[in-house]
Amino acid sequence: MQVELTRFRVKKGKEELVDQWMEFLNEHMNDALLTLDGEKMFVETIMRDTMGAYDYLYWYSIQADDGDSNSETERCIDRKHLEFFSKCIDRTYRPKNLRTEVVMIPQRIKKQIEEAAEEV
Question: How many independent structural domains does the chain possess?
């Protein structure tokens, strides 16, 4: 099981577009959730913070070890999500993968995650 938290910097001037992006994902949540099974992604959360003059988006995820994180699918939701990503994320800033120190998942939940990974 992979548990990750990655920080991406938002391009200056794209903060309102990020608002639209997050609104789009929330409004199309059912479609977004459909893409997670194919990736063996059990949890995907996007958080936002401002530090200094920049906004940052943080992706937190729990995914099966053999999950496919390649979002290059034909689903409309994925295409739109990638379009927002390329317009909003500052590619001159290297994404920061925070180091996982402790993962606390109750055994009953971890077992369900592992069983779900085998089903997909």
Answer: 1
How far apart are alpha carbons 44 and 65 in whole angstroms?
15
CB 10 within 8 A of CB 18: yes
**Chunked mean pLDDT (size 10), the chain, 120 residues:** 94 96 92 84 94 96 78 67 92 94 92 82
- Collapsing DSSP to helix, strand or coil, 39 comes out as helix
Give the domain extent around 114.
Answer: 2-119
CATH (domain of 78): 3.30.70.100
Instruction: Return the H-helix or E-strand segment holding 27.
Output: helix 15-27
What separation, in Å, do the N-terminal and C-terminal C-alpha atoms of the chain show?
A: 14
Closest CA to 120 of 43, 40, 62: 40
Q: What is the pTM of this model?
A: 0.84
Determine the Cα angle at 68 with ends 63 and 71, to 5°.
105
The DSSP output letter for 88 is: H
